[in-house]
């Protein structure tokens, strides 16, 4: 979290929400660590919901999205607005993600022409919202940036693909699927991008083993070209 005191917060910034307390470096325990990192105690805090005025151009962006979607659909789509470190993030319900992304792209007052990437985050302590997909957007027309975040449970890690709206998400969604296990429904070729097809687990989740992972490449074979994956 920022070192800002309550009297020096950004406009609209809410109180942080502590979801867990992390002990030690990287969450590893009983490791025989003698470096001193094992004694670290740090809260896992999520930025709190913002209130108006959000500051800067953020109010105009939110107002334009409300106008594009309609107030009722906006309320159904946006769980909360977060203003943190001069950045605007909208927490979106997955059922409404495509509608929000389409409005961001097409509405002349928004015109976020480019989705610059998709990232995954794993919060094991955020019960029922363990997996987060984070999307960065850029409006070249208005010189603005925006972030959308979608949270889903580990037991149901499905999020609609944005490939049909922003084709640049193609490989980003594949990488997030590979490393975090988030399934992007509707993606044209949702296969692993870095790990082998038969790799077990998702290496960037926080509960993935840090050591002692078997060398799964040992004895691996490469199939002939006519038996490899093909993309249309």
From TrEMBL:
GO molecular function: NADH dehydrogenase (quinone) (non-electrogenic) activity; NADH dehydrogenase (ubiquinone) activity; quinone binding
Membrane topology: Peripheral membrane protein
Catalytic activity: a quinone + NADH + 5 H(+)(in) = a quinol + NAD(+) + 4 H(+)(out)
Function, as annotated: NDH-1 shuttles electrons from NADH, via FMN and iron-sulfur (Fe-S) centers, to quinones in the respiratory chain. The immediate electron acceptor for the enzyme in this species is believed to be a menaquinone. Couples the redox reaction to proton translocation (for every two electrons transferred, four hydrogen ions are translocated across the cytoplasmic membrane), and thus conserves the redox energy in a proton gradient.
Quaternary structure, from the entry: NDH-1 is composed of 14 different subunits. Subunits NuoB, C, D, E, F, and G constitute the peripheral sector of the complex.
Family to which this protein belongs: Belongs to the complex I 30 kDa subunit family.
The protein's name in its UniProt record: NADH-quinone oxidoreductase subunit C
Annotated source species: Mycolicibacterium thermoresistibile (strain ATCC 19527 / DSM 44167 / CIP 105390 / JCM 6362 / NCTC 10409 / 316) (Mycobacterium thermoresistibile)
């Amino acid at each position: 979290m920022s070192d800002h005191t309550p009297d020096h917060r950004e406009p609209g910034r809410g109180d942080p929400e502590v979801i867990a307390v992390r002990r030690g470096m990287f969450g590893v325990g009983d490791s025989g660590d003698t470096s001193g990192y094992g004694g670290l105690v740090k809260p896992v805090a999520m930025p709190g919901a913002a209130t108006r005025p959000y500051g800067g151009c953020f109010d105009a962006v939110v107002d334009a999205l409300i106008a594009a979607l309609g107030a009722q659909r906006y309320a159904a789509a946006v769980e909360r607005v977060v203003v943190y470190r001069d950045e605007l993030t909208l927490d979106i319900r997955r059922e409404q993600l495509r509608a929000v992304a389409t409005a961001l792209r097409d509405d002349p007052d928004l015109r976020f022409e480019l989705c610059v990437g998709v990232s995954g985050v794993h919060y094991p302590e955020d019960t029922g919202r363990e997996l987060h997909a984070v999307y960065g957007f850029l409006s070249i027309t208005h010189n603005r940036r925006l972030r959308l975040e979608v949270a889903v449970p580990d037991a149901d890690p499905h999020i609609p693909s944005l490939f049909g709206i922003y084709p640049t998400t193609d490989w980003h969604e594949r990488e997030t699927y590979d490393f975090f296990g988030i399934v992007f429904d509707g993606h044209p070729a949702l296969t692993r991008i870095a790990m082998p097809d038969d790799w077990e687990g998702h290496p960037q989740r926080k509960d993935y083993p840090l050591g002692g992972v078997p060398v799964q490449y040992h004895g691996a074979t490469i199939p002939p070209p006519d038996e490899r994956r093909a993309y249309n």
